[in-house]
Design goal:
The complex is a heterodimer of chains A (about 250) and B (about 400).
Chain A: H1 5-61, H2 65-75, E1 81-87, E2 93-96, H3 104-107, E3 117-121, E4 125-134, E5 140-147, H4 148-200, H5 210-214, H6 218-238
Antiparallel strand pairs in A: 1-2, 1-5, 3-4, 4-5
Helix pairs in contact in A: 1-2, 1-4, 4-6
Chain B: E1 5-12, H1 19-38, E2 46-53, H2 58-71, E3 76-78, H3 83-95, E4 103-104, E5 122-123, H4 129-142, E6 148-153, H5 156-169, E7 178-182, H6 193-201, E8 206-210, H7 213-225, E9 232-234, H8 240-248, H9 254-258, E10 261-265, H10 276-288, H11 308-326, H12 336-341, E11 346-347, E12 353-354, E13 368-373, E14 376-379, H13 383-387
Parallel strand pairs in B: 1-2, 1-3, 3-4, 4-5, 6-7, 6-8, 8-9, 9-10
Antiparallel strand pairs in B: 10-13, 11-12, 13-14
Helix pairs in contact in B: 1-10, 1-11, 2-3, 4-5, 7-8
Classes of the chains: A alpha+beta (about 250), B alpha/beta (about 400).
């Protein structure tokens, strides 16, 4: 299908528009998924930290660290939670899930802080760490680290799905655009051929182009106009008005 | 329970890296139960052990317990293995307390089944990890080794031992100088170099390990290879013979790895035939040659002729039979607690008398210390001479 130069710009415009739509929706998708997932993870982690903190009070007061460890071992099985540690009111580590040991950054950090922090632990990955006080902090605190790598993985998966969908829409859209532009270009091709024919024939009468001349769109009107001009020119030629040096 | 049978339920590790513990405990108990069954059972009833494999994992252990309690309707639970498993099962016993299904003699020295709120649902025979670690700490500190580090399994079992060491050090004004962990289910082929390096950095005088044999043998191997030349102690749960087997197999220099090894035990040496129960244990193990439950075996395992773990299983079974006998001709679960509390100064045949009561849910208190000499564990005579 030959596409007229006139329509190539339109086609490029369609390409460009699709590109803008694809990129902008992907960026929006990344932002939305990342923000929502991060907020959800942080919120869930805080809820879990609070649940453990509430459940830990009796256990801590009874000094039953075995039961405390058993409790956090159950929570660390939840997807996304990478580590949990419980500190006493003095900052001593009472139970944790680290292997092969408590990371230096955490061991030497401020374990009494309740502020959400982002940590990058060597050999472990990147985490968002939330904390919840036990008995308003007088019995210690529960700290939970969520793997941000998992959030990134989910964002990547969401973007992948988005790009897959946009790619399909893009390909289908482009094929449709080419077909439509081709459809639109066909009458113009006809008018062009008709105009060339009119220029070449001595007495144009439109025979053989009835279909084109019968169209009620711009192509039909243009064809009829060309025919009219041609007939006028033929008539003028016959009247000698269009002779070289002749006057109108 | 029927007129001809008393069914006890067991969930233990018969697969995975800690399967040796479940298998040996089962074999020791089976030797004594077999002996009783061949001699008429308990007041005419055979003792049947219904066994399930939990692979030393909490979730299967809970599932198995549900099956044993609700479907199999066993008379009592007996001979469970492990702290992470038992600590998850205890709440179930409380939940179904109206059924009065008690847990007898689990192979763990952790505190939760010895204290409220779950203590009333379990009876223990062995000494606790608290007692084992206290003994190790006191003896190390006694010979001037005050800087104690801990290598432990990252779960309830490891924490139980860690807490015991921490507690035992406090009266001496000391703290744990270093700690390193490993994940439950680690194999001997696993590398423990990171853990060794962490502990080396703390410059310990001794290391106490709270783990299972595969991981502890790997740690011992890497510690010696990396030059951590301090006494390395294990508690009874480790499975001493399994550990020794792993660390010395296919090695001519096995002694290099065991010369600074010391393991605490909760039963006396199975070599000491001067102890009546040990003599009986050796005799019945030889006579019946108990095999692990074949339907649960998924991996190769070569049983030991004798081991501390199977001796413990044997003693557990012996006391269980005594309790069942005290229930009379019409055993009833509601009378079980009373039957246990009637055990006062009972002679199991190991030189230490067993007593139970409402405030005493653990029968034995004694801890023994063993070292490796000529390729086997023997009682430690002098801490000063060996490690001073």
């Amino acid at each position: 299908m030959k596409i007229q130069k006139l329509f190539r710009k339109t086609l490029f415009g369609v390409f460009f528009l699709f590109g803008v739509i694809g990129v902008s929706t992907s960026v929006l998708c990344i932002y939305t998924v990342d923000t929502h997932l991060s907020e959800e993870y942080e919120s869930n982690s805080k809820d879990i930290a609070k649940t453990i903190a509430d459940a830990s009070v009796d256990i801590l007061l009874n000094r039953n660290l075995t039961a405390l460890q058993s409790l956090i071992d159950q929570f660390v099985e939840i997807q996304g939670i990478s580590y949990i540690y419980i500190t006493s009111e003095t900052g001593e580590f009472l139970a944790h899930t680290f292997v092969p040991g408590i990371p230096e950054e955490i061991r030497t950090g401020d374990t009494t802080s309740m502020v959400t922090v982002e940590r990058s632990l060597p050999g472990m990955g990147d985490f968002v760490e939330v904390a919840s006080p036990i008995l308003a902090g007088v019995a210690g605190a529960v700290h939970i680290g969520s793997d941000t790598g998992l959030i990134a993985l989910k964002v990547q998966r969401a973007i992948g799905q988005q790009i897959y969908l946009i790619s399909i829409i893009f390909v289908v859209g482009i094929l449709a655009a080419i077909w439509l532009v081709g459809q639109a270009a066909r009458p113009v091709d006809g008018v062009l051929a008709f105009a060339v024919k009119l220029a070449q024939e001595r007495e144009a009468d439109g025979r053989g182009n009835e279909k084109l001349l019968a169209r009620n769109d711009e192509a039909g009107e243009l064809a009829r106009l060309f025919l009219h001009f041609s007939q006028v020119m033929d008539r003028d030629k016959a009247d000698g008005l269009s002779q070289p040096g002749g006057k109108e | 329970m029927t007129d001809s049978e008393i069914v006890l339920g067991t969930s233990a590790a018969f697969s995975g890296p800690s399967r040796g513990l479940g298998i040996e405990l089962f074999r020791g108990a089976s030797a004594y139960f077999e002996h009783v069954n061949r001699n008429g059972g308990v007041r005419g009833r055979r003792i049947v052990l219904r066994t399930y494999d939990d692979g030393y994992q909490p979730d299967p252990s809970v599932q198995n317990t549900m099956t044993l309690m609700l479907e199999d309707e066993v008379f009592a639970l007996f001979g469970y293995v492990g702290t992470p498993t038992v600590t998850r099962v205890l709440p179930m016993l409380k939940k179904f307390q109206e059924r009065q299904v008690y847990l007898f003699f689990p192979f763990t020295g952790a505190q939760p089944q010895r204290e409220p709120p779950y203590g009333p649902f379990a009876f223990n025979l062995r000494a606790s990890y608290r007692q084992e670690t206290a003994g190790l700490v006191q003896n190390f500190v006694g010979i001037g080794r005050k800087r104690i580090a801990v290598f432990y399994q990252a779960d309830a079992y490891g924490r139980s031992g860690w807490a015991g060491v921490r507690r035992a050090l406090r009266p001496f004004g000391e703290r744990i100088v270093g700690e390193a962990t490993y994940g439950r289910g680690s194999k001997f082929t696993g590398i423990m170099r990171d853990q060794v390096e962490i502990l080396k950095a703390s410059r310990p005088d001794a290391v106490i390990c709270i783990g299972a044999y595969a991981a502890c043998a790997a740690f011992l191997r890497d510690a010696v290879d990396l030059g951590l030349r301090v006494p390395i102690a294990n508690v009874s749960f480790v499975g001493s013979e399994n550990l020794l087997n792993l660390i010395t197999q296919r090695r001519d220099d096995g002694e290099r790895y065991t010369e600074l090894l010391v393991n605490s035990q909760v039963v006396p040496s199975y070599h000491d035939v001067g102890i009546p129960a040990v003599q009986q244990y050796q005799e019945l193990m030889a006579r019946y040659d108990p095999q692990p439950p074949q339907e649960l075996l998924r991996e190769d395992y070569t049983p030991f002729s004798h081991s501390f773990v199977s001796l413990e299983g044997f003693l557990n079974a012996k006391l269980m039979v005594e309790i069942l006998d005290r229930l009379g001709d019409k055993p009833d679960r509601s009378a079980l607690e009373g039957a246990v509390f009637s055990i006062r100064d009972f002679d199991l045949g190991i030189g230490e008398l067993v007593s139970f009561g409402p405030e005493r849910r653990q029968g034995l208190q004694k801890v023994y210390y063993t070292v490796v000499d000529e390729g086997r564990f023997v009682p430690l005579d002098s801490w000063e001479n060996r490690f001073g």
